[in-house]
Amino acid sequence: MIRVEVLGPFAVRRDGAEVPLGPPQQRALFAALVLARGVPLSATTLAAGIWDGEAPASAVAVIRKYVHHLRRLLGGELTITSSRRGYALTLAPGMLDADDFSRAVHAADRARAAGDLDTAGGRLREALALWRGPALTGVTGPGADQHRPVLDGQHLAALRSRLEIDLELGREQRILPELRSLADAHPLDEHLRLLLMTALYRCGRQAEAIASYQECLKLLRDDLGVDPDPRLRELYGRILHADETPLPTSAVPSVPAQPPTPVVPSVPAQLPAPSAAFVGRAKELERMEALSDGGVVVISGMAGVGKTTLALHGAHRIAERFGDGHLYADLHGFGPGREPTPPGEILDRFLQALGVAPADVPDDLAVRAGLFRTLTTGRRLLILLDNAAGADQVRDLLPGAGPGLVVITSRGTLPTLLARVGARLLALRPPKDEEALALLAARVGTDRTRAEPVAAREIVAGTGGLPLALAVVAARAVAQEHLPLSAIAAELHDAHGTLDAFGGAGDVRAVLSWSYRALEPAAADALRVLGTHPGPDVTVAAAASMLALPERHTRALLRALVEAALLVEHRTGRFAAHDLVRAFASELPWPGDQERREAVHRLLDHHLHTAEQAMAAVFTGRPRIALPPALPGVVVSAPPPNAALWFVDEHPTLLAAHDLAHRDGFDGHSWRLAWALRDFFSRHGLWHHLQTSQHLGLAAARRLGDRLAEAHSRRGLALVESNMGRYSAAREQLREAAGAFEAAGAKEFLAETYRFEIWVLDRAAEHESQLKSAQDLLDLYPLASGARHRAWALNAVSWSQVRLGRFGPALEHAEAALALGDGLGPYSLADTLHTLGSAQAGLGDHEAAQRSFTRSADSYLRLGAHAHAVVALRALGDVHRDAGRRDLADAAYRRALAVAEETDDPRAAAISGELAVYRT
Q: Which CATH number is 569's domain given?
């Protein structure tokens, strides 16, 4: 019987005896076929997965030879087939340990859902017993590097689930030592920390639980610049106050294992809550339910007719039929002040919601759309695309084949979709009089409509039965209960003017104009000013800046607009308006162009100064640019405790502000906003936003003729190029930036540019150029300069010389860096010790190199930098091996493997396979 093992050292066993799989690339090829699970892989794909860097010219022939050898080794029990599409291997049930693991985990999930915790725990223990070490140990190549962290992540998820079940069964005393060990091995894993704190508190160790939280808080802030998860903070508060309410036994749901794939699927639930004032539309809901068997449904109709309201109510009625999740996006197809949302941006959000890491979202739109179709094929998903501009906007947002349903709302009928993909049309009209009366009654009360039936019907007639217009009138009636409905009907009748784009079925401008005139003068001015705001919503601080008013006064005006049904506070402190209201507000006349420009200037000042402060809080080591003073009246918000999450929340509005600065000619704001957003976009893998913002910044800098501003934008574009692997283009941008920084005497920014160039050159393996840049950096920091910066530069020179094999000069520079003492800082000390050990090893001084690598590894471990510690321990093993001390080398490799097992960092996991080879 054949058994294939990937959950630990990679092996194929026949009747218990291991089958030799040949050289490393041949093993990697067979592993790739195993993990593809029967999907054919072309020779090109296989070559990219088994060779680091560029595959040899003879790759296809070599792969053919490997396949021939494997077929001979495996005989008829495992058959590798070949076709036009490539090579494929299909394993029978029970052959692959990863399949057994997945089945056991799924069985545990089913038992747990049924309340059978003992069975669930037993199945998880069976699953975990299949693991013999880090996944795919002994397999080299990029392909294995992609699969390895996914498999190891499934192992950790199953382990967490088993611990949760033990907690639910009251076994906290038994699992406490294991939880402590795991939390120490994964100090940034908030899930494990939550379980540990729960166990400690249940064991009567309140002080230790509090101390564990404080340790986690410090680690997260120091290493990631973020605060703990809200669930962890809530648990901490309960423990702190000795809350005797039983603590949750499973604060975080278990994560079922999935087949190995670069994406861990998730189940999104993005549907917004439906309106509480919904009435009628019974026929339309029945029609929508009848169309829910799959495919595409287009709900069309004029603005304000209730397309979104109907779509949301209908979607919630059928949501349970779509167990793989619900996706939602407002496409902003029709609305003032902004362009329709590009499909690429929506795909970015959807892919992340489906489990794709931000850095893994493809830059090319066609590739991104293809990945979306791949991930959605065969899944029972409900996708609601609201407010589409046309078929072109939604074509790339349609999922792959399967039982999913797409509901699209649009003012048009989207005939292209009807013809090409067989979309079904649900044309929505304004409700009939009786239904519109029921909607009015639901908002103002049936007693009032029954008391004045004629006036109620006149209101319905005056609004054309348009739900949005009825809502505005009803808000007026509710706010002014002393006014009879007849007075409101008369005011509505006397109003003049229309919203040109929405005429015919109802005079929406008349309704909004009346509502606008009914406002207090200050609130009316606020609506006019806010009509210029470009983002999806506005905060109190941003509104206060535009109005040049205190925040307290501004908040009162915003609440007045909410009461008039012109704004909605959709999140605490964040206000949004319907498209029609924004259209109306954007048409309101200003006293003059200068007043409007000043309001926009204040808004941009608010966003720029606030973003710059948040940037400084998140990226503490980055030099800061000088900002022009903000105009009087601008509110600059202090960065929140978690400034990184502030960027996540605010970046859509910051992007809109950046576009506004570009359109309105605020070039100084444009390049500075690009600078402030640069590192956030890079850290979160938002390469397309990074690229767009830096190009806008560069264009603005050129219009200003400001070489220093242009240098900052080129530094940002270098980051774009390097993230995409275009190192020569990145270097060109950096050379331009460095020249401008040097000419301006901007030493800190010049040093930052050199530091980044050194990293780029190291990645590109251009070590001569790397050394020159390192020496240029060192020239910036003479002996009299700060110890930290000079030590960093000395180490950069030393490492560049190591990479070139110039070990003598490398040793001198590393020792000079270490001579600067405490000024190095803990990370720089560990880095420099590693460089020193590399130079000593290159010179054959094995004893000295052993001491340096040992100190470096120990320093990294104290800092929690496990991936770097693995590299240092591997180097230590190499030194012992070269010196003929095989036992000590094996001990170092084993320790490196143990550290690699303790971290989720994919770099450490990728090294583990190489370590296993070294040990052989």
A: 1.10.10.10
Residue ending a domain, choose from 518, 548, 574: 518
* pLDDT for res 684: 65
Give phi and psi for 425, each to the nearest 5. -105, 135
Number of domains in the chain: 5
Residues 677 and 787 in one domain: no
Q: How far is CA 853 from CA 597, 759, 829, 849, 879, in A?
A: 61, 22, 12, 6, 9
CATH of the domain at 307: 3.40.50.300
DSSP result, 247-274: PPS-SS-------S-SS-----B-PPPP
pLDDT in tens, 100-151: 998 998 889 888 888 899 999 999 999 999 999 889 998 988 888 878 877 8
Q: Are residues 786 and 861 in the same domain?
A: yes
Same domain, 665 and 721: yes
pLDDT digits (tens, 9 = 90+) for 668-682: 999 999 999 988 887
Task: Confirm whether 112 is domain-assigned.
Answer: no
Global pTM value: 0.51
Domain endpoint, select from 567, 589, 611? 589
The vertex-804 CA angle with 800 and 805, nearest 5°, equals 115
What is the extent of the structural domain holding 499? 433-518
Distance, CA of 878 to CA of 885 (rounded, Å):
10
Do 477 and 461 lie in one domain? The reply is: yes
In this structure, is residue 376 part of a structural domain? yes
Same domain (yes/no): 368, 298: yes
- Residue 840 maps to a domain: yes
SS3 19: coil
* Residue 321: DSSP 8-state: G
Higher pLDDT, 449 or 839: 839
What lies within 8 Å, CB to CB, of 471 at 6+ separation is 277, 443, 565
Confidence of residue 792 (pLDDT cuts 50, 70, 90): confident
Tell me the two tokens of residue 509: 């401008």
pLDDT on residue 822: 64
Is 413's pLDDT higher than 90?
no
Which residues, other chains included, contact 144 with Cβ-Cβ below 8 Å and sequence gap of 6+?
Answer: 28, 31, 32, 49, 136, 913
pLDDT for residue 503 is more than 50: no
Lowest mean pLDDT among 331-345, 414-428, 503-517: 503-517
Rounded to 10°, the helix 579-587/521-530 angle is 100
Q: Which residues, in sequence order, are CB contacts of 109 under 8 Å at separation 6+?
A: 120, 161, 254, 256
